[in-house]
Amino acid sequence: MAELLPEWESLSLAEQVAQMVVVRASGYLFDHQIQYPEWEPPAAVLQHWVQDLGVGGVILLGGSAGELALRSQQLQDWAKIPLLIAADIEEGVGQRFSGATWFPPPMAIGAVFRKDASLALEYAEQMGGIIASEALAIGINWVLAPVVDVNNNPSNPVINVRAFGETPEEVTQLASAFIRGAKAYPVLTTAKHFPGHGDTTVDSHLDLPVLSHSSARLAEIELLPFQEAIGAGTASGIDAVMSAHLLIPAWDAERPATLSHPILTQLLRQQLGFEGLIVTDALVMGAIANRYGANEAPVLAVEAGADILLMPVDPAGAIQAVCDAVAQGRISETRIRASVERIWTAKRQVQPDTAQPPVEASAIAPEVQQAPSAFPPHLLQLAQPHALATAANIVRESLVVHGETPLRPSQGNLRNLIVVDDTLNCDFLDRQTPAVALPKQHGYQLQLLDPHTTLIPGWVFYHKSGLDAQPTLLQLFIRGNPFRGSAGLTPLAQDLFKKLLEKSELQALVIYGSPYLLEQFLPHLPPHIPCVFSYGQIPAAQAIALEVLFGSPSLRI
């Protein structure tokens, strides 16, 4: 790998355009571990894209944090020009790469903000700093966070708890604090999804949402957090803005924001004065891929004002299509050069010779301190005690408790009924995680369901007449997730809750994820039945919620 950036003027047109492309790859080291073969190329293809095509960056998903450290180094070794290595780590490096710190979703900090604004701002800044530090430790130099959408639509299937809150004021303050924390480290930060994805009911991973508000309403609600994040070009401002795949007729009735010159260039670049990188949301998403050609969408995005083409369907085809558009006069060479100059500015900010702040020995977990001397020193940044404590404190401060606690389990046939939105995509639950292990200690037997489960008559809550009732701890893991559209009540969760109440079998309810689910259930829950709500679904959140349910001090509503 070339340690220093070459002069961009020395690159051919195709090499300049390739620097505008960021491809998706698996964080796992071996081809047989690839989880999404439609989007994640085998090693030989990935090496060709990086080494021969000269793409400007890679976005990674999957694997452990330790593997990522090796994977990112492998990618940089392949590259002739230093890469931007990105990841969607809105909830911490551990959200995507096991072993690192995993936070509850940003809306948990929003809940704290409504009780104690200064504490929430402190948490948001700490979260930003921890994410940036851990990202650097494993070779990630571009953090695709924070989300600055205002989630003012409870039915939003894709933003939901990924947002800091429901008002522009709380989102603006918390996102700005997150950025301050992250900017203490040489990483890029990203405000998304411009100009605001919070008031939608369609998942843009699947189809194209339409935001039909007036320009005045959009300026009042959606744009405010972006304006603050941009910071008028100051050193504390955001480094990149990610576009949203939204149709906004008030500003462009023809094309979605990602492909809209009025939105990306006239509004974001000129009116709001943003000077950093404009990056598209993934071009493989249904809102774009289902409506525009694999090679036409990248051209339209560049015409609109995008500097970075994230995850084009066909990277080589996208590069050629943009070059052809230049040859045809659709796109000027000046336009390409402007993007490459901004990319070079960003890459200089994250040069590997930039020193990282030292790690205090007292902050390193004992098991890591005792690791062999060959243990890579940069991995000492991961999952430090103060980081894990910060995540746990956010969970505790945002917890909601209703009804009579602690729960005193009866003797006999106790059931721990867990509902997840998709068992096959559940990386926060296994036989050792607290939602399973802690109830087991109290005599509960596990039953695990998801919306794909086929219920057999007489099974689960349909016990036969004359049989003893089965006291049930119902645990629901439901939140908005891209591609899954599970922000609302699933029919399974509704049916279970109703049937268990009718049969007087519901002993306690724990909800992990969406506060909008809690709002739907609470009016129907008798006051004596305990209910604990946590924004987080992670194991630490499970432990804290169940410790409260079974006897720890609680916060009541």
Jot down its keywords.
557 residues, 37% helix
Estimate what percentage of residues fall within beta strands. Answer: 5-15%
Secondary-structure class: alpha/beta
Enumerate the spans where pLDDT stays under 50 for 5 or more consecutive residues: 354-358, 461-467
**Percentage of residues assigned to helices:** 25-40%
Number of H- or I-type helical stretches: 20
Mean model confidence by pLDDT: 89
The side-by-side strand order for the widest beta sheet comes to: 9-14-13-12-10-11
Instruction: Give the beta-strand count.
Output: 14
**Biggest sheet overview:** 6 strands, mixed
Over all CA atoms, what is the radius of gyration? 24 Å
Q: Any idea what the shape is?
A: globular
Distance between the termini: 57 Å
